[in-house]
Amino acid sequence: MNSAHGPRIAVVGAGLGGLALARVLQLHGRSVTVFEREAATGARHQGGSLDIHAATGQAALRAAGLLDRFRALSRPEGQEWRVLDPVTATALPFPGPVHDDDSPEIDRGALRSLFLESLAEGTVRWGCAVTGATPLGDGAWRLLFDDGTTEDADLVVGADGAWSRIRPAVSDATPGYTGVTFIETGFDDCEARHPDLARMVGNGTLLATADGKALLAQRNGNGYLRVYVAFRAPRDWQVAAGVAPDDTAAVRAHLLKMFDGWDESLRYLLRHHDGGFVDRPVCVLPAPHTWEHVPGITLLGDAAHLMPPVGLGANLAMLDGTDLAHALLAESSLDDAVRAYEHLMLPRSAQAAQECAEALDHLIPPTDS
Fold first, then answer.
1. Poorest-confidence range of 15-29, 91-105, 192-206, 246-260?
2. pLDDT in tens, 121-147
3. What is the C-alpha separation between 354 and 254, in angstroms, rounded?
4. pLDDT of residue 164
5. 3-state SS string over the chain?
6. Under the phi-then-psi rule, with left for phi > 0, alpha for psi from -120 to 50, and beta for the rest, what region is 88?
7. What is the pLDDT of residues 160-192, one digit of tens each?
8. 108 in a labelled binding site
9. Are 256 and 265 within 8 A, CB to CB?
10. Residue 5 has pLDDT above 90, yes or no
C-alpha cells in the first residue's frame, strides 16, 4: 500500500522525537507527515530548559544537520549546578553523578522551533487530534481523528507522549504515579526584578533537598527562572491538605508550612513567585516497557518509555527519532526497519528508565514503610 512517493509514514505528535524522525527522513528525500493535536506551533507553552547530552541528544541533532544551529542557541553556562544546605543556604557538593561536561542547556520551545523551521512547509498538520489507530491488514493502519476523519498509512509512529493514543495498539501499559509530585511556578525577568535570587541560583540550576522534599530553581531563556517543589505525597495530596489547586494563597501557605525551618532565601521561591502553582505528578511507564512487534506501527519517546524527568527523556526521544529514520533508510522493508529500531531502542530505554528511577529516589528518597 505504498504511494507513488514511497511508503506513507504518519508520525503522531510534533514533539522533539517525532520532529527529529521527520527531519532526518526529509534530509534523505523521504516523504513523511506529522499529525499534531495542537492548533498551531505556539498554542501551548513547551516547558522548561533541557540539558542536551553529547552521546544522545547532540548525536541526534548532528544526524538532523542541526547541531551547529543548536550550539548557537544553547547556553553552555546553564550546565552549572548549585546545591545549598536547606537550613543555612551554604554551598554543598553536588550529590548526584558527575554531570556531563558537554550538555548545554536550551529551552524546549526553542529546540522544538529549530526542528519545525527545518521541515518542509506543510509537513506538520496542526489541529489533527488522533484518537486511535485500527489495523487494515498487511501492516497498514488507519488513523482516527476526533473530528471523524481518517488517514491511512503504511507505518504509524506514536510520538504522542505520556498519554499516547497510539500505544494501545501495541501495549496495554499505562503510566502509573510514582508517589512524587512536582509543583511548578516561576519568576519573570529574574535578573532585574530579583537580583539577590538570581545571584543565589547562578547560571544554571539550584537544588536544596532534605527529608524527602526538594526545591529546584532552573534558569531558562528570556530571563525566566522556573521553580519546582518536589515531594512524596498521594496523587490527591490537595484533598488531604484541604486546598484547591487553583487557590494560590492556600497552596503557598501549605508549601511554606511543609518547608518550615528552611532558610528564608530558599522560602523566597515560594513567597514571591509570579503567577500560580501548577501540579505535575510524576508518572512513568513500567520499566522495562516492552511489547511484541506489531507490523506497521511503533512508538518513540515518552509514548514508548515515559520515565522520571531527570534529564534523559528529551535526549532519548530525539535519538529514537533519528535511529528509526536511519533504520527506515537502511532496511529493505518497513517491517525490517521497525524491528531493527525496536531491537536497539527497547533495551536502551529499559536501562535509562532504571537509571532515572534511581535518580528520582536519590533526589526524593522513598519513605520507610
1. 91-105
2. 999 999 999 999 999 999 999 999 999
3. 32
4. 98
5. CCECCECCEEEECCCHHHHHHHHHHHHCCCCCEEEECCCCCCCCCCCCEEECCCCCHHHHHHHCCCHHHHHHHCEHHHHCEEEECCCCCCEECCCCCCCCCCCCEEEHHHHHHHHHHHCCCCCEEECCCEEEEEEEECCEEEEEECCCCEEEECEEEECCCCCCCCHHHCCCCCCEEEEEEEEEEEECCHHHHCHHHHHHHCCCEEEEEECCEEEEEEECCCCCEEEEEEEECCCCHHHHHCCCCCCHHHHHHHHHHHCCCCCHHHHHHHHCCEEEEEEEEEEECCCCCCCCCCCCEEECCHHHHCCCCCCCHHHHHHHHHHHHHHHHHHCCCHHHHHHHHHHHHHHHHHHHHHHHHHHHHHHCCCCCC
6. alpha
7. 999 999 999 999 999 999 999 999 999 999 999
8. yes
9. no
10. no
Average pLDDT of the chain? 94
CATH architecture type of domain 178-283: 2-Layer Sandwich (3.30)
Classify burial at 215, counting beta carbons within 10 Å of its beta carbon; exposed 0-12, middle 13-18, buried 19 or more: buried
What mean pLDDT is predicted for residues 251-275? 97
Is the CATH number of domain 9-78+104-175+286-363 3.50.50.60?
yes
Q: Domain spans of the chain?
A: 9-78+104-175+286-363, 178-283
The per-residue pLDDT for 6 is 82
% of the chain with per-residue pLDDT over 90: 91
Residue 37 marked as a ligand binder = no
Which of these, 298, 338, 360, 342, lies nearest to 12 by C-alpha position?
Answer: 298
44 a known binding residue? yes
Annotated binding residue at 263? no
Question: Is pLDDT of 369 > 60?
Answer: no
Q: So what's the pLDDT on residue 45?
A: 72
Q: Which three cell numbers stand for residue 140?
A: 497498514
